Amino acid sequence: MKLSQKKIFRKQTIELYDSKIHIITKYLGNNNEFDISYESILPNKYDIKTNNLVLFGFSIFFYLLAGAVYYWRFIEGDQSVEEEASVIWFIVGTILLIIALKSTENIWKIGVINNQFIKVYKRSPNEIAVNEFITTMFKERNRYLIENYGSINSNLDYEKQYNNFVWLKNMEVINESEFVQKIKDLDFEFGRHSNKIGF
After folding, report:
1. In this structure, are residues 194 and 185 in contact, taking their beta carbons and an 8 Å threshold?
2. If you compute the radius of gyration of the chain from its CA atoms, what whole number of angstroms results?
3. Residues 111-127: pLDDT tens digits?
4. How far apart are CA 81 and CA 171, in angstroms?
């Protein structure tokens, strides 16, 4: 499955493979391509909204400047101020406002180990496609991790398998009851039976 996204000056493609995701980003002629293994993808995603306050500030400044120039020229009658100046500053303010609005980001940040993240634009191509892609990505990740770390093998070390199950639980691949069952099955396979006497 593939998700292609476009944002101003930026293109991003995220593709799901059997054991990893492949990401290609293009930004102002720079191309980056990298892989992230399913083991590295954390179970959380964050809703992030960003905006460019500096551009908004400059836009407001130019609108105020256009208003002031208009006031000096046409209300006060100051002939030293050019007639077109207020229109030019108004156009500059509008252009900056449009760029600021276009650069506003509404994204999902999906956690990756080492405090990294995958940035997925919420509305590119549309919210439904993005949400379906993220859901599928987590399903594929969980399937891969269960297949590779969730089986009991008597030829492998008990502690390593126990740690794998703890890790799967921490990665939210299995829930608490599945974890308890996996540990019971592991104990049974290795002949470790609980000697608890219940009343």
Report:
1. no
2. 28
3. 999 889 999 999 888 99
4. 66
**∠ CA(149), CA(152), CA(153), 5° rounding?**
105
Token pair for residue 25? 């980003």
Q: How far apart are CA 174 and CA 179, in angstroms?
A: 6
Helix (H) or strand (E) holding 11: strand 10-16
Q: Hey, which residues does 36 pair with through a beta bridge?
A: 21
CB proximity list for 174: less than 8 A, separation 6 or greater: 146, 150, 165, 168, 182
pLDDT of residue 194: 54
- pLDDT value at position 199? 45
Give residue 83's pLDDT. 76
- Give the closest residue to 24 by CA, choosing from 14, 16, 36: 14
Q: How far apart are CA 87 and CA 76, in angstroms?
A: 17
Q: Write down the H helix ranges in 150-175.
A: 158-170
- Contact assessment for residue 134 and residue 124, using Cβ atoms and an 8 Å cutoff: no
Which among 120, 102, 153, 157 has a CA at the least distance from the CA of 36?
Answer: 120
Tell me the pLDDT tens digit for each residue of 47-101. Answer: 888 888 888 899 999 999 999 888 887 777 777 778 788 889 999 999 999 888 8
pTM of the model: 0.74
Token pair recorded at residue 184: 């019971």
Q: Are 119 and 106 in contact (CB under 8 A)?
A: no
CB-based contact 154:161 (threshold 8 Å):
no
